UniProtKB/TrEMBL annotation:
Originating species: Lysobacter cavernae
Protein name listed in UniProt: M48 family metallopeptidase
PROSITE patterns in alphabetical order: PROKAR_LIPOPROTEIN
Cofactor(s) required for function per UniProt: Zn(2+)
Entry's family note: Belongs to the peptidase M48 family.
């Protein structure tokens, strides 16, 4: 009965989700949360971030970021061409994010590593790549499925061997899932956002080669990193090599965009 219970519950979890294809052709399992709810969650998180963190009052910085965002989002598929809301945070850490519902946050610290509009576009397009690739949906779906299955496994062991076995199984299972399942998925998503973002920036008329320069600047500004297998991001040097290889292939796209009048003049 216990294997049957596990099988039935697994089937229920899978049925509640859906299989789709990402922009790069990768198989995804999504659908644990409806898109409308994801958008609402993104909007709520963005509102909280603006309430808790200091916003930049520098008009030039705000206009600069808004200009880059506008040029990039014009190239999105029709379903994603909403009015993206932008916030620039007075924070020295070089970071940026994008959320479902069309929300983009950029820290002023990003300007220390993104030295020009093409490098800033590489950052912003990468973050938008996460959204249009449905990475938030995919991650929530995987986390929910993993939590459900770990709970079932712990319950089954507990009924057979007692609460000590159940607790140990839950702790070890959670650690294993985080290390070998959820973190590798995050690295996959980061690499995919690189691909989608670099393509998007080139279509908008931003130089795709500048993504390499951006990451060289990031490495120069960063401190020691955790081992690659415990990181949520790909190895920086591997990332640079891949970005450089793709940049060459994207030059015709970039040149066509420029010839068609896509010549960003943001800063």
């Amino acid at each position: 009965m216990k294997p049957l219970l596990l099988g039935l519950t697994l089937a229920a979890v899978v049925t509640a989700c859906a299989t789709t294809t990402s922009p790069t052709g990768r198989r995804q399992v999504v659908g644990a949360v409806p898109q409308a709810q994801l958008d609402q969650m993104g909007a709520q998180a963005f509102t909280e971030a603006k309430a808790k963190q200091k916003l930049s009052t520098d008009a030039r910085q705000n206009a600069y970021v808004r200009c880059v965002v506008n040029d990039i989002t014009r190239e999105l598929p029709a379903g994603w061409q909403t009015q993206w809301e932008v916030a620039v945070f007075a924070d020295s850490s070089p970071n940026a994010f994008a959320l479902p519902g069309g929300k983009i946050g950029v820290n002023t610290g990003i300007f220390t590593v993104a030295k020009n509009q093409d490098q800033l576009a590489a950052v912003i397009a990468h973050e938008i790549g996460h959204v249009v690739s449905r990475h938030h949906d995919e991650r929530i779906t995987k986390q929910q499925s993993t939590s459900t299955l770990l709970g079932i496994g712990s319950a089954i062991l507990g009924s057979a061997y007692g609460s000590g076995a159940a607790n140990a199984a839950g702790q070890l299972g959670g650690a294993a899932a985080q290390t070998f399942y959820l973190l590798p998925n995050s690295r996959t998503q980061e690499s995919e956002a690189d691909v989608v973002g670099q393509q998007l920036a080139a279509k908008a008329g931003f130089d795709p080669r500048q993504a390499v320069n951006l990451w060289q600047n990031m490495i120069a500004a960063s401190s020691a990193r955790p081992p690659q297998w415990l990181s949520t991001h790909p190895d920086p040097q591997s990332r640079i090599n891949e970005l450089g290889a793709r940049a060459g292939a994207l030059m015709p796209t970039y040149e066509q965009a420029r010839a068609a009048g896509h010549t960003p003049k943001c800063g």
